[in-house]
Amino acid sequence: MNTPSPLLLPRTVALVGLMGAGKSAIGRRLALRLGLPFVDADDEIERAAGCSISEFFERFGEIEFRNGERRVIARLLEGAPHVLSTGGGAYIDPETRALMREKALTVWLRADLDVLFDRVKKRTHRPLLRQGDPREILGRLMEQRYPIYAEADLVVESTAQPADRTTEQVIDALRQHLSPESAGAVA
Ligand code: S3P
């Protein structure tokens, strides 16, 4: 029987997608499976700013947030390969997107509206979802952002199935991308 080869990642894997797509949950599991550090860009922004993302939006607004987000992600992408979970708007910013495309392997976790809404509805920490009806806002963001997320290197469906299963699918997609001839083996 052939022993599956370990998945050797030449660069950081950056997860992109809308709020509720599961970027942090899948990212943590993926990092464990790949033996790489996990970094959450939103946590790093909060650490650098010394306040929560909500407070940041209130005090400085979204444009300043995007500037800070771009700086933090640029710094993280200079580091050793890791699994990076990014906030939903990061890949939408043209400069941050260009950086991510240059320095990382990008994976879009695509989810439908019911899945997204189900995951975000009980949490109140996301400033963009407090500006009106959260389901409507998510629907609008899907229309605006899905064509842009589609530019990611890989696309994996994030469904209501257990996060471990979706993580497996990300690993399969990475394996297929990196060495198509050994696809299907386990990391
Ligand atoms: C945002 C998503 C959030 C956070 C900020 C803005 C967005 O991250 O970065 O509230 O523009 O979609 P999550 O996608 O991790 O919730």
Explain this structure.
The model has no long low-confidence stretch (mean pLDDT 93). The protein has a five-stranded parallel sheet with strand order 2-3-1-4-5. It is globular and about 50 Å long. The chain is 52% helix and 12% strand. Helix 1 (23-34) crosses helix 7, helix 2 packs across helix 3 and helix 5 (113-120) crosses helix 6 (134-149). It has 187 residues and is of the alpha/beta class. It has one domain: Rossmann fold (3-Layer(aba) Sandwich). Bound molecules: shikimate-3-phosphate. The site of shikimate-3-phosphate has 10 residues, from loops.
The order of strands across the largest sheet is 2-3-1-4-5
Largest sheet: 5 strands, parallel
Strand element count? 5
CATH architecture: 3-Layer(aba) Sandwich
What gross morphology would you assign? globular
Averaged pLDDT: 93
Q: Give the CATH class.
A: Alpha Beta
Distance between the termini: 16 Å
Weakly predicted, low-confidence segments: none
User: What is the CATH H-level superfamily?
Assistant: P-loop containing nucleotide triphosphate hydrolases
Q: Which structural class should the secondary elements be placed in?
A: alpha/beta
- Total helical segments: 7
* Rg for CA atoms: 16 Å
**Which fold name is given in CATH as the topology?**
Rossmann fold
- Determine the strand fraction and express it as a percent band: 5-15%
Question: How many distinct folded domains?
Answer: 1
Q: Say which molecules are bound, naming each kind only once.
A: shikimate-3-phosphate
Tell me the series of helices and strands, N- to C-terminal: EHEHHEHEHHEH
Q: Which range best describes the helical content: under 10%, 10-25%, 25-40%, 40-55%, 55-70% or over 70%?
A: 40-55%
